[in-house]
Amino acid sequence: MNKDINFRITADGNEQDINDIFEMLKEYNLSNREESKNVPLGIFYEDDGGKKLAGLTGETFGNWLCIHYLFVEDHLRKDGLGSKLLEAAENEARNRGCKHAFVDTFSFQAPEFYIKHGYKEVFALNDYPYTGKRFYYTKEL
Hints:
This is GNAT family N-acetyltransferase. The chain is an alpha+beta fold. Helix content is about 30%, strand content about 35%. It has a single domain, classed as Gcn5-related N-acetyltransferase (GNAT) (Aminopeptidase, 3-Layer(aba) Sandwich), CATH 3.40.630.30. Strands 1-2-3-4-6-5 form a six-stranded mixed sheet.
């Protein structure tokens, strides 16, 4: 390797740069890990006009349900809608053969919600991004 390495450092979030690295990593990963499909999952609660009021998005990957986002409009919170979305996602994941679930959440979001539903903390990032906390949870399905 050349001892005089010149790095190009950016702060622009260039999509092409990001995609180039993603594709290189994906090619490497696919050649080295066991075969498995990522299957998207979306569960939505909408008003009569089709406006989304709540929903959960994620994917199933092998034995895992990976929850990306769960959101419920403020005026619908505390009525069990979030629990029903989570339960629907877990049931669909079981139907797809999943045995585990994974989610991450910030301290100001919903750690207690996931704990209430049987999720166990795997680890947490303190001082994230500066003074908060980000939790990572798993659950056996």
